[in-house]
Amino acid sequence: MQIVDSRAALQRLSDEERARGLRLALVPTMGALHEGHLSLVREARARADRVWVSIFVNPTQFDEAQDFEGYPRDPERDLEACRAAGVDVVYLPSVEEMYPEGAATWVDVDRLTEPLCGASRPGHFRGVTTVVSKLFLAAKPHVAVFGEKDFQQLAVIRRMARDLGFDVEVVGAPTLRESDGLALSSRNVRLGREARAQATVLVRALDAAEAAVASGERSHEAILSRVRAEIAKAPRARLDYAELRDPESLERAAGTLASPTLLALAVRFEPDPDGSGGAVRLIDNRVLLAR
Amino acid sequence: MQIVDSRAALQRLSDEERARGLRLALVPTMGALHEGHLSLVREARARADRVWVSIFVNPTQFDEAQDFEGYPRDPERDLEACRAAGVDVVYLPSVEEMYPEGAATWVDVDRLTEPLCGASRPGHFRGVTTVVSKLFLAAKPHVAVFGEKDFQQLAVIRRMARDLGFDVEVVGAPTLRESDGLALSSRNVRLGREARAQATVLVRALDAAEAAVASGERSHEAILSRVRAEIAKAPRARLDYAELRDPESLERAAGTLASPTLLALAVRFEPDPDGSGGAVRLIDNRVLLAR
Global pTM? Predict the structure, then answer.
């Protein structure tokens, strides 16, 4: 496994591999790799000859300095996980390479970035689209794989890649879950014991919504009431948002479920009463289908 | 000469040429090609094995609909000029390909885009950086050539390419001039007869500033007074701006000329009293050196 920390070296390697006719897949990550990331690596492997992983904790996509500083980092463990997963190249850029002195350039996606996490986390998606553009330009992959857990991020990156004409196929991969249903996330390790136990409330709320739809419910308001009622059962959970939106444009859907509709959830947990764990915001989603 | 109107086809062609080890140069234009553009083609030829020209009148960089509609267009003549100049590929994208339905993505450069033409033409540089990003991603060239007449544009594109990490060398080429000194511009043909005669006031103002510096003048205010006095001699010229700035950051320089300093000018002309010609804004610049 090759570890590359310079953009210029990565671009030369990409040129060489592409000239040899090899298909390159990139999996952009912020490290703290878990089984969810490794499933993205497997998806990438199925679609390409070479799998490249980037590891970069991107400061500009954190809306709270505290979240950035507390974000779990363990590069040695990450590299070991990549090696074990058969990754070919790991790109480990420095903050100075990604944001050189005087950096003034941003990639912005309008509209799709305004609701949901965009409303809760001002500037977050601007950081995401800017850093993903830089990673695409550094690795020049044929395909890039992102998790569907961050559904809005995936929709925003797809739109960005289409609009700017990146020669990169953007692929979404299904969310991996703990045995109790909690979506895998690097932030899960920061939950206190009580918060961790109650964090399954997100997937239970999604299940409740799906069950309601299966039993014939079509009213958005009724579906969201079921979701809110479920969240309310977890005393440590604070609902940030629960919304039904078009899965592609992320526009608010009409009041009745007719076509596949995204149910997106964000829930905040505070540290446990005994002081263990931190403030953690979890997201999850499901596309609801009226059959 | 190959004419390509699809981004996907251009990207495949770029991949093939790059895989063969050929060096590609792109000259982005809005058509209405004149000798200035052809000098960019020669510069490109000297730096690459293949010269590609894009022709696209980019709607998003016009701050006035009137200017966009009135912008000279003559694709047949442009293609003939490219053929005669030995251009290898012309990329002629449609507006729909460059701005697909629902397009929501912008590339923004902060700070450098605020003064000078950025102040006079709100949104102009956002349009430029967005379309140049799309052209770079479509052609995937090794090098791209831009004219130094649009000095701020060149500085902004350099910054963008550096910040995002485009694998493209951005090259500036010197301004070509008519025999009377007027900088070549596609907009010159829209000047009325009187306005055209007086349009040499820009280069005369630059010359006056240079002469003042050569004779020992170092005060910014004194240099700019000379410029304004020169412009005032042309009754049909209205000064838009005359400023001294750092050539790289475009920040306002200190009050005394010490290092190479950009003198940037923009002057507006109205239609001639007989109604001939249109409203035209001309720009020119020179880097002043205190020797």
Answer: 0.97
Which residues, 6+ apart, have CB-to-CB distance to A40 below 8 Å?
A27, A29, A145, A146, A147, A173
Lay out the sheet containing A169-173: strands in order across. Answer: A2-4, A89-91, A50-55, A24-29, A143-147, A169-173
Q: Please name the residue that has the structure tokens 């444009």.
A: A249
A159 conformational bin, left if phi > 0, alpha if psi -120 to 50, beta if neither: alpha
Of B168, B164, B143, B162, nearest to B249 (Cα)?
A: B162
CA dist A180 to A183, A201, A204, Å? 9, 10, 10
Domain A186-285 annotated CATH 3.40.50.720: no
Among A174, A208, A206, which Cα is nearest to A283's? Answer: A206
Pairing of strands A105-109, B50-55: unpaired
Cα distance from A83 to chain B (closest Cα, Å)? 27
Structure confidence at residue A288 (pLDDT): 97
Calculate Rg over the CA atoms of chain A.
19
Give the DSSP H or E segment for A138.
Answer: helix A124-139
Residue B28 forms beta bridges with which residues? Answer: B54
DSSP β-ladder status, A105-109 and B2-4: unpaired
The full set of domain ranges for chain B reads: 2-173, 188-288
A5 shares contact with chain B (CB less than 8 Å) = no
Is B111's Cβ below 8 Å from some Cβ in A? yes
* pLDDT tens digit sequence for A140-176: 999 999 999 999 999 999 999 999 999 999 999 999 9
Q: Has domain B188-288 been given CATH number 3.40.50.2300?
A: no
| Minimum distance, in Å, between the CA of residue B13 and any CA atom of chain A | 12
Query: Is residue A37 flagged as an active site residue?
Result: yes
Dihedrals phi, psi of B169, to nearest 5 degrees: -85, 125
Fold designation for A2-173: Rossmann fold (3.40.50)
Q: How many other C-beta atoms lie within 10 A of the C-beta of residue B69?
A: 11
pLDDT digits 0-9 by tens, A88-139: 999 999 999 999 999 999 999 999 999 999 999 999 999 999 999 999 999 9
CB-CB under 8 Å, A21 with B134:
no
- Tell me if domain B2-173 and domain B188-288 are identical in fold: no
